[in-house]
Amino acid sequence: MFDPAVLSDITTDHGSESDVSSDVTTALWRPIRQQELRLVREAGGRRWPALRPDQTHFFPMLEEDFAIRAAQNWNVFGPVRYVARFHVETGFLGRYSTRSFGGSAAPMLWVAAEELDEFNAHIVGSIEVVHEFR
Questions:
Q1: Burial label, 4 (beta-carbon count in 10 A; 0-12, 13-18, 19+)
Q2: Fold assignment, 4-133
Q3: Residue 6: partners with Cβ closer than 8 Å, 6 or more residues away
Q4: Which of 3, 49, 66, 117 is deepest in the core (most CB within 10 A)?
């Protein structure tokens, strides 16, 4: 299960930011392609789009460096790739397990596809692009 104590360096109190509540949140990252970014923007930058039928889980990453490496190196994202950062209520994340993917030591949350709407409801602030790769 997700242990917020392990991630104290990426957990922040956003009380001074205007579009983020004063609740404690955890920053998460996700490498995305242009199509997914378009869908996020169409949703006002506040939620992740529904997964494709063949996707069983949504995998937000707990480490920015791993999301950057994935966006730079995984060709499945196409010629233009992004890393998005978003914040989720830390207390809500306790329901999810963390696992590593593809032999990496970098942990990711495993959010079942059918739980994505509820997960989206606990996003605080906007989903923002923090890196772009071409």
A1: middle
A2: ADP-ribosylation fold (3.20.170)
A3: none
A4: 66
